[in-house]
Input
Amino acid sequence: MKKQLFTLIILLVSNLTFAQEKLEPTILILSPNETKYEKSFKREVAKYNNSIIKNNNTSETESYLKSEDFLSQSENIQEMIKSEMEFAKNIDFFKNISSISEQFLAYRFFEKFPNLLIILKDQKSDGSLTNLKSISENEKFQYVLNFSKIELYKKDNVGYAEIKIQLFDDISNSIILDKSYIGDWNNPGFEFACTNESINCTINNALSKALNDIIYTIAINSPTLKKEKQLSQERLNILSNEYLRKDFDEQFLKNILSNRNGKPFQLLLNDDKTKFVAFFIEQVSSQDLKGLTENKKDKNVKIISPNDIKDKKFLEEIPRTYAYIIKAVKYNDKWYYEKSNVTYFQANSINVGEEQYFNNLQQWNFFKENSTELNPDFWETNLFEKIPDLKKDPDWDKYGESIWKTDEVNNRNYIGLYEIVADSLRKEKQSKNTSFEEQLNENIFKPTYESLKKNNPNNYSKLSVHSLIYPENRDLAINPVLVTDKEGIKKLQYFVAFNDSKKLYEWTYFEPLAIKSNLFGSEVVNQIGSLTEWNFSVDNLNDEKFWNQYVLLKQGNDYKYLKEIKE
Output
């Protein structure tokens, strides 16, 4: 089963602080009240309990409570972590069911409710309304989750777990969920994956059903979600009544887009007519996931299926309502646009599908936060984001060198441009890069390498080439090559070709480097990276100092570091 949750919570909320608003939801999770199991499971239960005792490192958890990591967490998260650690001191196989429940509920609720409070308590309840109410009031929690009975048994040589859960709600003073869940010992996969035919699997299968019901029950009782649902409906009414059926200028789109894009059902256009979002929808032929993958119609696709992802039907029946947007920006008197948010979903009719898909505007920042008023920043955010200057990000010192460095180099020429424009310019550059590489490879590198192998097999028995390295102006390129001689000795060498010449040169700034294996890309990065900011993920090497000082530097009329290859 899973590690303690505090490691996950830290990843989610590290360095975040929350204004202490009202905590929601507040859930107290108790230890199981009654547990029983058949003798055939005794050995497995004992083995699990022994492993818990062996792996329980109290000193490590206690020292964590004094760490900077822990102290940087918000107060509610600190309380949750402390309860996990305290509960773990006396944990066993059955109590771990409470622990798993806390982990899963916290994970599922956290994004929507950062001020949640889910606490474990090594206390039992007899399951009576009076007792649950007393616990709720004493501990000051709205919800109390009680595992009133857990039983492991076998039927027809298959292991099962039956878990009876109760969810008490202090506001309604009632047990709002009182139900038994049964799970077999087959591995369910996904987040509840386990060793097949184990007691862990019986628990995971039963618990996965129970936890989903608990989440749903708490969600429908949540004041926050009720308010959000009401707001969502009000926004939907505005979108449907004021925007969806509004007349728009189809000819405007036709002048910009080709007819192959289909017929739009709505168009949103900004005031100065320099940005738009066009909505498209159609019913498509039946297809399965394999067919959808193979047709390569779209790169990024969202599938909203009525079937569970675990069901076979999810793979065999892709919903037939197909919708997407085309978003566009006018830049330097030219329109740049891209197809986006491609979605397959189920709709009873095209009109219903249009309303469902158009409602995505709610999550695309069309309205002000917590309001039905239109967001004036709609045309500058979400669908129309700009390329940021990563060096100005407050977390650059933390992530810049280790994670963002390559992105920062590749983004430099596009900072401040809309992503739609930048993506188009990148594709255009990539196309030119590809043509340049093909031209140099076919006309210079490959023919010369073949001649070297033919005319000088002692030194050039085999040549293994790597990717070309060149500046954005594409006037020359370096090709790292692993050269193997007739004795089988491998050395890393570099060759240079110019766009306007048939000559090939060896770049001699570095002495040929002996390589033991056939993998040499990391050595290339180490060598060239010692001279400039570069790796193979960088689109182009645009450092003029590198090219002028280390490659093209001359002594008199000759290049200092380039030696012409004589075939």
